[in-house]
Design a protein that fits this description.
Layout lengths: L1 E3 L2 E3 L4 H8 L1 H23 L4 H28 L8 H19 L11 H18 L2 H7 L1 H4 L5 H35 L11 H24 L12 H10 L1 H31 L6 H27 L1 H15 L13 H19 L3 H16 L4 H29 L2 E4 L2 E4 L5 H19 L10
Antiparallel strand pairs: 1-2, 3-4
Helix pairs in contact: 1-8, 2-4, 2-8, 2-9, 2-11, 3-5, 3-6, 3-16, 4-5, 4-6, 4-9, 6-16, 8-12, 11-14, 11-16, 11-17, 12-13, 12-14, 13-14, 13-17
Length: 455
Amino acid sequence: MNELQGVVREESKTGKKLLFAFPRVGSSLVLGMEGFALFNLYWNGFGLSAFLVGLTQAIGFLVVGLSQFFFGWVSDAKYTKWGRRKPYIVAFAPLLGISFIFLFLPSLFLPDLSDTMMLFVWFFIWDLIFKISYSLTTVYQSWMAEQFIVSERPKVSQFQNYFNWIGNGSMALVSILVLTGYVDDLIGPPRNPNIPIPMDFLLITIVFGVIAIVTFTLVGLLMPTEPKFEIKSNLKENLKIVIHNRNYLRIILMIGIASLAWSIVTDVILAYSQAALFLSGTDFYIIAGVLIIGIFSFLFVWRRLLEKLGKKKALLYIFLFSAITLPVSLLALIEAFPRLILGIIFIVISTGALGGWFLFPYIIYADIAEDDEKKTGQLKAGVYAGFNSIIGNIFQAFGVFILGTAIDALPLITLTGENVALGLIVFGPICTVILLVAYFYTKKYVILDFDWEKK
């Protein structure tokens, strides 16, 4: 048992832990696919300019940053008969799933996708709705501190990781094996954005959206309402506390710098494979197998490294690994280099880099919130899980904006008889420079391992 502000919380059964972790399947499916495949679908598939796609996603990141902070704070401040978190989870779950479906299936609703202005407006509106709905994940994650005592949270996080792996693996397979086939059909020749949606892609997209709605709605309805206890929710006071936490601000800046690179890599994986390496058909079955093996292998390696060396040293190794290996994208300039081999190497590197990075943010935020609780006696999980998103999403917005601008602004070059956007190839060295800055900054200024963790 644990006591906070006079409220006694009992130990939780395994069923409750699994129920709480279950929505990670839904969030990984829709959030993962939105980040992994949407740029490729709208730019390479539908033919919308890379600048407009990048601009829309950049604005979306800014909106989600503000939404995450706002709803994290509001859910801390307002206790209802359903508790602090349930109302927002139940309200936003349908919007998250529906906006995902509308984003990936515009031809179900628009009469002519060759009308780029109409397509852009559609993309802009539904991406913003999706990003605002995404803020429910901050409210949901904040709930862990109130539902589970400290000793239970690592186990809950472990269950969340299991469901994350299921969701990410499934969305990656669909993106590589199904969505790329649809994009190939859209490209042609001749290019035709109005071709019928393949039945497998149609059904899978709808199923993914429904899973997101159902998983979050279930956890919102079935989890017990957390006990009522006071949280000092004055926004001005909370911001003062956050701003005076110098290490937290340094961590936010570190995450922001690194996110510049990670947002570029995530957006470009499929576009690089299809539009720079010209992989297609059976190539993607091999790529999909390598990706799944890479996800599980690297998650195991990075987790063991984290447990053995601590969070900071493990993260520094991830930065170095990524900085050294991402310039492999330049090998696409060597026409004699086998395209499939390069695709396999690139997938191994990108899954290794992103798999390591995605282990860290929620661990870091939870530790920072607990470190502050030990000093102030106040658990402000919503504020700490939400405030970081403002700075982090500004950097991510800038990252996707750089990618879209580079693809449109840099010249086309001819490789293996096909035109390739040079911006799709030079992103590797650009990300290397960014990650080296993140490495040296983290090494010098950031604390990720606390003395109380050793007790």
